[in-house]
Write a structure and sequence with these properties.
This protein has helices spanning about 15-30, 45-50, 80-85, 95-100, 105-115, 130-135, 140-150, 155-160, 180-195, 200-205, 220, 240-245; strands at about 5-10, 35-40, 60, 90, 120-125, 160-165, 205-210, 230. By secondary structure, it is α/β, with parallel strands linked by helices. β1, α1 (about 15-30) and β2 form a beta-alpha-beta unit.
Length: about 250
Amino acid sequence: MRIPFIAGNWKMFKNRAEAEAFALEFKDLYQGTDIRAAICAPFTDLDTLVKLFEGTGIGVGAQNVHFEEEGAFTGEVSVRMLEDIGVDYCIVGHSERRQYFAETNETVNLKLKKLLASSIRPIMCCGESLEQRDSGVLFDFVKTQLEEGLAGISADDVKRVVIAYEPIWAIGTGRTATPEQAEEMCAFIRKTLIEMYDEETADEIIIQYGGSVKPANASEIMNQDEIDGALVGGASLKAADFMQIIDF
């Protein structure tokens, strides 16, 4: 049985003092909850969150990582550095990384392999633009992201990958895919994973929906059969709002 997993993505928000204030409030709200939760924060906040969330069951994730162990890669952070802090998760292939920082299916694949050789679980993002949806190529586009992103990854390893479906047209726009649209694509992702691996493997993989998830729509989205969680943007910046989503 797949345990629901709600992850917050703070993007480029919150300094260390703001992260500490959030953590102190959120860990009190989270007590006794059986839904898995994590906060994916800027690199500068990770150490603070790891220390404050220790023993609470709340995970901490990075928003990006480099696929090389070390080297002349100014401004980058390695898997080993994240492991040293005690990070639990790492987002790879977010649409904003693809759009603004030249992330490709190939680099997503390299990062996934590096993370899967460590203790850190990857959250792999995929999703189509409005143009791709309207032109009818949305399923082909997402299938290619999955096939190229997961190339060479074994069935045993892929079970540790969280897939986050994030329609680009619903990220930070206030627009949300209808529950039916989100379910349709998440079901297609599961079907593709069955074709790539097998049904038993695909049934173990957590598939999240991400795209303007808020307290007001979380229940409808989370109660779809093939949606196992959410990757939450703006609504994860306030502890009370994020907790409402977890309590869907």
